[in-house]
């Protein structure tokens, strides 16, 4: 097993719009240990979401290396990155990302339908109970509250038993009580399943409750205590 669940070394990502170049990440480096819950916080435009999308393999940095569980992902082609992401990375976005035309049960099965794997029904049942979504199977997302939908997204992300769970502002679209509940559930999942979690958030009070907090500024890690 690799010493680190995540290791990022001097990555750089820029965006070009007409004649203007914007540096989103520059010389960004840090590492996360297996089973660690790390929060990433910083001002708007500091590079938080770009960093998470690089970790997920959704975008590729121009420079540097990203290693997930001992596997370097930045040099993979798009198909290999997609396969790796489906098998090893769970993602929770701010805006639920559920397919509105599918039932909750169908949304939960979606990762397995895409990658052709069999779901672990016992494990999924355990997740549903832990996240209190047992009675939602035949409902559609629009029939569920925001908090319920986010719990379904967390269950779907964890159902494939990923090596790494990435959460991009997972409480940003919720009221304060629902946000607290979702964060508590992420913490419970991390401890129960020994899950490695990297969570981007603007909520300092939640960020401080992580095992470790990374502070971003101008595309780099300003503060990364070990």
Automatic annotation (TrEMBL):
<keyword id="KW-0813">Transport</keyword>
<keyword id="KW-0067">ATP-binding</keyword>
<dbReference type="GO" id="GO:0016887">
    <property type="term" value="F:ATP hydrolysis activity"/>
</dbReference>
<protein>
    <recommendedName>
        <fullName>ABC transporter domain-containing protein</fullName>
    </recommendedName>
</protein>
<dbReference type="InterPro" id="IPR003593">
    <property type="entry name" value="AAA+_ATPase"/>
</dbReference>
<keyword id="KW-0547">Nucleotide-binding</keyword>
<dbReference type="InterPro" id="IPR015854">
    <property type="entry name" value="ABC_transpr_LolD-like"/>
</dbReference>
<dbReference type="InterPro" id="IPR003439">
    <property type="entry name" value="ABC_transporter-like_ATP-bd"/>
</dbReference>
<dbReference type="InterPro" id="IPR017911">
    <property type="entry name" value="MacB-like_ATP-bd"/>
</dbReference>
<dbReference type="InterPro" id="IPR027417">
    <property type="entry name" value="P-loop_NTPase"/>
</dbReference>
<dbReference type="GO" id="GO:0005524">
    <property type="term" value="F:ATP binding"/>
</dbReference>
<dbReference type="GO" id="GO:0022857">
    <property type="term" value="F:transmembrane transporter activity"/>
</dbReference>
<dbReference type="GO" id="GO:0005886">
    <property type="term" value="C:plasma membrane"/>
</dbReference>
<feature type="domain" description="ABC transporter">
    <location>
        <begin position="6"/>
        <end position="226"/>
    </location>
</feature>
<dbReference type="GO" id="GO:0098796">
    <property type="term" value="C:membrane protein complex"/>
</dbReference>
<dbReference type="InterPro" id="IPR017871">
    <property type="entry name" value="ABC_transporter-like_CS"/>
</dbReference>
<dbReference type="Pfam" id="PF00005">
    <property type="entry name" value="ABC_tran"/>
</dbReference>
